[in-house]
Automatic annotation (TrEMBL):
Name of the protein this chain belongs to: DUF4440 domain-containing protein
Record domain DUF4440: where: 8-108
Gene3D superfamilies in the record: 3.10.450.50
Organism: marine metagenome
Length: 121
């Protein structure tokens, strides 16, 4: 259960880094092999996702999760729930309300996200 709390904390820090455009902090929570699939179906790697945030193309203004569930499979964690928030995408204000599924792994006591998939609800 301590690892579940650590995962919740890591994900909260990841969301905070996205909102604050802290790309250095964000990079520490994303695995180099990250596959981030947006609700549109577009898939980005770590570099492209960070670049879109750093450039201001995507500005996350708020991100909150609820109804979360975590399961552990050795050093792999599946974290799912509902994410809602406000985002400015290429100048257009949008409200998010998506179901999400993320996969994290732990190596050397460090948690990092290796996959994200969200679907609008």
């Amino acid at each position: 259960m301590m690892l579940f709390k650590a995962l919740e904390d890591a994900d909260a820090a990841r969301r905070r880094a996205m909102i604050e455009t802290d790309v250095q902090a964000l990079a520490t929570y994303l695995d180099d092999d990250l596959r981030w699939t947006h609700s549109s179906g577009k898939t980005d790697g770590k570099t492209a996702l960070i670049a879109s945030i750093e450039s201001g193309s995507v500005v996350y203004q708020s991100l909150e999760v609820q109804e979360t569930q975590i399961s552990q499979h050795t050093n792999i964690f599946i974290y799912a729930g509902i994410i809602s928030g406000d985002v400015l995408k290429e100048g257009t204000q949008k409200k998010l309300r998506n179901k999400f599924l993320s996969i994290w792994h732990i190596t050397d006591e460090r948690l990092s996200m290796i996959a994200w998939q969200s679907t609008g609800i």
